[in-house]
Amino acid sequence: MREFKGRVVTPGTAKAEAVVTHNGFNTLASLQKSLQFGDKTAKCTDQNNPDLYGKPLAGYALCLPQTIGSTTGGMVLYCACAMKRQPACMLFANQIDSLAAAGAILAEVWLDDVTMPVVDCLGDEFLDYVKDGMMITIGEDGMVKVE
Amino acid sequence: MKLTEQQQAILDGEKGEVMAKVMKTLVMYGEAFGAEAMVPVTSKYNHLVTSFGLGVIAPVYDLMEKLIEAGAVSSQQFSADPRPLDGNAPANFLQNLVFNKFMYNKQEFYEGQLEKLGLMDKNAFTCACYMDEVGNKPEKGDVLSWSESSAVVYANSVLGARCNRNSGIMDLMGSIVGYVPYFGLLTDEGRKATWIVKVKTTKKPEAQLLGSAVGMKVMEDVPYIVGLDKWIGSELNDSACTYLKDFGAATASNGAVGLYHVENLTPEAKEQGEALVAEDAKVYVVDDAELARVKAGYPIMWKKPNTKPKLCFVGCPHMSLQQLKDWTDKVEARLQKYGNKKVLIPTVFTAAPGVLQEFEKTDYAKRLRATGVITSYICPLMYMNNPLCAKMPVVTSSNKLRTYTTARYFTDNEILTLITRGGRKS
After folding, report:
1. CA–CA distance, A41 with A99 (Å, rounded to integer)
2. Residue B189 buriedness (CB in 10 A; 0-12 / 13-18 / 19+)
């Protein structure tokens, strides 16, 4: 078990199994088709991401360096939250990027019954350590426990 | 973040609850990046990425409705990304059924919302809004609240405007309030290059392939590109701008680039040169072998990789007027070379409605029609999101389209051969 301290972008606590990508997470390519065609598990459909392709994302602790790609990314993430198909939490090794930040903040401000805690700045060591299937617990203070 | 009295009053609810929430969203957005202030949006027009009335994104329409009902609309008019539907684009009965009944069944409703929110005009739908024929071209130094990754990277890099890679919805919020948080690509420091890309190819690199390689390498960082002016010149003429449009779109979709500098060419690089490069910048060398490696790494999503293509898209991002003319010449010449009169694969060239209107006024339009090529203002990406279209073997010279769909990427030259000579491609 190891603990990593990050910065809270949107608050909340969560306990969920990890899914990990070492490449940038392309939000549109990953989530759009799942949202569009009723896949409640939100399986990743990004053909360019071998770490996540085909894996369910809804309800998992998504561990990533940053998001990339289309500027619909934040809007897609907001829709995933509104439709309750979002990851349980998002944990960024780097500082969060502008698209993911937009999605998480829009959900936090405009949706009443949805929480998706987001912690960033966890460092490269976090992504080196965490593996698919590990249990993640995050606290209100941005402390992330990986076991 | 330190707000002005006026900004604080909006946050405190002086202009109503909805406007307060809009301001709160922008403040939280800025605070996530350490912004200490909000700065006025100075461009004449805004640009939005969300142009599609996809039935399942009801949460977006709900939010838009809240804004409209509260009168929280922008004083700035805006253009938006391309429409997802156009009768010109080939589609069979079942594909059309899926488009109209199951996918974009909210298109009319959503366009109505956009008009209420400040759409420039009924045809202001294109990802290349900065074309002269469209008229949304910001000035150097303008502060924008735009989204659309390819438009943002073009505005920052080629036009010298200042804009972060804003998400859909966030784009509108900055415009409604009239302020955006000051961070990232709005700041001098954020516009410094942390990568030097050395182009050492033996011929002019394919714009969309070079962009892909750079995007995948630098991700969201700012690259300073050396050696490209050798191939595309040191003046921002039509040809160079077209190249940079396609190059930038690939950097932004294959990575997350919001700004690049090209030595001796782009405005800030011309003014400041290597002073734009951060002290500890990393170096990435792109030669012929590197481009070949990147291209070979693209996954092929077709069920049968050597099947004959059924459709070809050129124009993601949308083509310029000169690009349409150049491609007309090239298609004609190649058809003549292979002894054919019309293209052998249904081919669609996409451009902004305004650009297509101008194109229609030229002799080229008639000549292009004679080759069998179709023109359309559609968004090829939205077309390919139809699962019945995604099953088709579609080819494209767009690395953005390749990234998000099952379309297969080929260079411009390979595309020309495919559509004029025909045959299978493995």
Report:
1. 22
2. exposed
User: For B311-420, which CATH superfamily applies?
Assistant: Aconitase, domain 3 (3.30.499.10)
Name which of B404, B406, B408, B409 to mutate to probe chain A: the one with the most chain A Cβ atoms within 10 A of its Cβ: B404
Q: Using the beta-carbon criterion (under 8 Å), do A70 and B149 form an inter-chain contact?
A: yes
Q: Per the confidence metrics, is the pTM higher than 0.90?
A: yes
Domain A2-146, second-level architecture: 3-Layer(bba) Sandwich (3.50)
Could you read off the pLDDT of B196-219 as tens digits, one per residue? 999 999 999 999 999 999 999 999
A137 touches chain B (CB under 8 A): no
Residue limits of CATH 3.30.499.10 in chain B: 311-420
Q: What is the DSSP string of B205-263?
A: PPHHHHHHHHHHHHTTSPEEEES-HHHH-SS--HHHHHHHHHHHHHHHHHS-----EET
Partner B, chain A 59-98, Cβ-Cβ below 8 Å: 65-75, 78-79, 82-83, 95-98
ipTM, interface predicted TM-score of the complex: 0.93
| CA B179 – CA B9 distance, rounded (Å) | 14
